[in-house]
Design goal:
globular; 4 helices; three-stranded mixed sheet; 3 strands
Length: 128
């Protein structure tokens, strides 16, 4: 059904503590599929998880991926074609990003932004 590999796999990789970033060819294979899926699903809220997803989002917007530094985005949200984009760090145990107090504060702000975005979209309305 899917002729090209579009997912991250640990197949063939030696176990280690760092997350494996997909090769650029795998990312390129997935861009068209991702755009099609966004069009089909038409989500009101999209969450990017870590720098890889953030950089892919920036590329889709025609922006420079090199500007995709987590501290500049985590805790904020943007509008893209009527969708709210919320930026989160990766929460895997392999990521050391959350070891910093400053980054933990950014994660707390990101959780608030996600809650507000879901509320605004009527996905998970807040109860009072």
């Amino acid at each position: 059904m899917f002729p090209r590999k579009c997912h991250q796999s640990t197949e063939g990789y030696a176990p280690r503590r760092a997350d494996k970033v997909p090769p650029s060819q795998m990312e390129q294979n997935c861009v068209k599929f991702l755009v099609e899926q966004i069009a089909v699903v038409d989500p009101k809220v999209i969450v990017t998880l870590d720098g890889f997803a953030l950089k892919a989002y920036l590329r889709l917007r025609g922006r420079r991926a090199s500007d995709g530094l987590l501290p500049n985005f985590v805790g904020k949200r943007e509008n893209w074609n009527g969708r709210t984009i919320v930026f989160l760090p990766h929460t895997s145990g392999n990521s050391f990003w959350l070891n910093s107090t400053t980054n933990k504060d950014l994660l707390a702000a990101a959780k608030v932004q996600l809650s507000l975005a879901l509320n605004d979209a009527g996905v998970c309305p807040r109860t009072t």
